[in-house]
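Summary for the lay section of the report: proteins are chains of building blocks that fold into shapes. Here we show the chain for Trehalose-6-phosphate synthase and then a coded description of the shape we predicted for it.
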Amino acid sequence: MTQYGAEFLWVLILASLGLSALAIFISVSRHRRYHSRAASMPNSSDDVASEAARKVLREFEKNGQSVDAALVTWSPETLRKILAEDLPDAQVIVVSNREPYIHNEKNGEVELVVPASGLVSALEPITRVCAGTWIAYGGGSADRVVVDGDDRVQVPPGNPSYTLRRVWLTDEQYQGYYLGFANEGLWPLCHIAFTRPTFRDSDWEAYEAVNRKFADTVVAEARNERPIVLVQDYHFALLPRMIRERLPEAIIITFWHIPWPNSEVFSICPWRERILDGLLGSSIIGFHTQFHANNFTESVDRFMESRIERADAAVSYGGQTTLVHAYPISIEWPVELLKTLPSVAESQARVRERFGILADAKLCVGVERLDYTKGILDRFHALEELFIRHPETIGQVVFLQIAAPSRGTLPAYKHLHEECLRFAEELNERYGSETYRPVVLVAEHHSQKNVYEIYRAADICLVTSLHDGMNLVAKEFVASRDDEQGVLLLSTFAGAARELLEALIVNPYDAAMMSETMLQALTMGPDEQRERMRRMREIVRDNNVYRWAGSMLLDAARLRKRGELDRVTALSDRQVSLNGDNVVPMFERRQAAGYR
Ligand code: F6P
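The coded shape description reads as follows.
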């Protein structure tokens, strides 16, 4: 072998040794990485949820921002874990006007009714998981019969998992607080439906007195100084402040289920500062959309001596900070009730039989409380427009409107009811025949089970609110369609339109446009229906109600942790000041340290 040949051989040997060493190194480090990842991995599917929730919390704490909970599969188990691990020993108290179960007297018997309320369908599964206490107005005619000596009853009936604590109101209180200030004042004030709000001194007094009564009840039900109180809706704007004064350590999460108007509209309310002051007693205020959260912050900025921390989505007022966030509400997933329902084909047959609907007509449905914000008359207009523009559809389409009576003693609601009856009758006379009624209007309460059966029977579901915080009917319809068929027509003015982008989005004020969209829905093929429905079902599954509640609870956990940290630091500050140094308030100190 020549000298060059020997050198070449040595180079080859060294190179192959180097490559082998590199291969061994890569394989060992891969092995290590795998093992260290495996060691840190949760070892059961249950732990996956809590690990994911912790990951979200860490991210969220790092950013000081609200949670992007997209990584978590939200379930009752996730919620339980958050409560156990991040808010140990916290007692959850829900407060709402409407109770989840109403006991009525009917023919000498006690009848149980689950009210037609988006709030109830969202909060009920959450309260079951939290095993908490739900405080609500006892409005059923047999409500007093079934409670114990402390006005409590365990629910759900048959499988109790939480306590319903009923609060009794006099007729005057109910009239002034619920019908008056809440529903003739705040409701039209917050919805763009062109119904003028009415404000009366006597209603305001009743509203204040009832809020006080609920505050007393919360304090009475609290087992310690630090409950988590979930205050629901526009019936209780003063309640957060009243609770804060008596339970300063409580976490108070207030959720405003309806839109919040712009500050110009809000300024109409004669008690606007009191309302804002009351709400700012909350630790967190939630809205369905960022738009409504922004409107609220603008109102605070305009009417209150406060500091707005826009980057943190927080308001500092009276020495306290309140987070103002969007948390889009949703429904449980999977819907438990679906297990008890017949197949889609059977539901179709049963619903058509029950309401006398022709077997070969396309079935459009609307399901809601009889409320002027829901755009029921606008739907009828669109149907008429469809018949005028496309006469071939007469006889081919039936519109079934389920409208649960609501706030029926108020003039605006009475008037709407009469208008709906009149219009439906007119349409039936004009376009119907002996065997064909284009509009079937059923102004009665329906059980959730019946409502889900109707969703499953529908070819098209119309949600055409003139203005709506979220609208859970849209999400319920989607959840009910495990056959991936059916078309959703959805108002652009409902919060749900921000999420359910595969719905056919309509402007309910534009009858011509809505009628053309109805035609598009009526003629949509099964493949396109499936494509749209599948996507919407994924959205509702991922953004379910456990995510809604979980995001708020994680935010609450962060606040509590920060509060604890602040207390410890404040103590050491006091120590320092005893030694003669200046005490810099916590907020300024955090700012100086570069924290937001
Ligand atoms: O839509 C707002 C809302 O408060 C819902 O949360 C609830 O479903 C409904 O209105 C309440 O209606 P009622 O006045 O019948 O309780």
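Put simply, here is one thing we learned. Confidence is low (pLDDT under 50) at residues 20-49, 55-68, 580-596.
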